[in-house]
Design a protein that fits this description.
By secondary structure, this protein is of the alpha+beta class. The chain has a domain of about 80 residues. Helices cover about 35% and strands about 10% of the residues. Strands 1-2 form a two-stranded antiparallel sheet.
């Protein structure tokens, strides 16, 4: 909202006294032309910050620790590095975990469907001093290749609130006592 003929009476509290101060048309025009000149001056020169700039430091070892990451980007690359035995253990651990949790089920693929690809993600977990703690490998499916209506129909996830779980835990003992009586 913009108004050219606005008057501000900052020295007078609203409704304190009923006196009204009226300005003449010449006074209003004079202040308007002064304000327009100030606006033009402001547009010519951008406002600069007067704060002192401080250089940020993340520690002396920041560049060395975080820029020296040589994690493999594929399975063949991982198996060709000197750490190959560690990566092989990580891959075997991931496969055992998948089989124990029944994450995937081996079945025959229907004729009109294509299998989705997968990719290995390799990560090196470091200790606080920068030495290697362990090597981790994760097998992830390339879900971005799925088509809605063909490969999947519903997208939902079962979610419960912690208050609902607490209520169930609180009600369960009461129900047990009722059945004992």
């Amino acid at each position: 909202m913009e108004s050219r003929n606005a008057s501000f009476f900052e020295h007078i509290f609203p409704y304190k006294d009923k006196q009204t101060t009226k300005r003449t048309r010449e006074e209003r025009d004079a202040t308007t032309s002064v304000n327009e000149m100030e606006v033009e001056q402001v547009k010519d020169e951008p406002r600069r910050s007067k704060r002192a700039r401080k250089k940020k430091s993340y520690g002396e070892d920041f560049t060395m620790v975080f820029l020296v990451e040589n994690e493999p980007r594929s399975y063949p690359e991982a198996m060709s590095t000197p750490e190959a035995p560690y990566w092989k253990d990580a891959v075997n651990s991931e496969m055992n975990s998948i089989m124990q949790n029944h994450t995937y089920e081996l079945t025959d693929l229907p004729q009109r469907f294509k299998a989705l690809g997968c990719k290995w993600i390799f990560k090196t977990k470091l200790k606080a001093d920068g030495s290697i703690d362990k090597c981790k490998a994760r097998l992830v499916v390339q879900g971005f290749r799925q088509k809605e209506g063909l490969d999947f129909f519903d997208t939902y996830s079962l979610v419960t609130r912690i208050t609902s779980i607490r209520i169930l835990i609180g009600v369960a003992p009461c129900e047990v006592w009722k059945s004992i009586k």
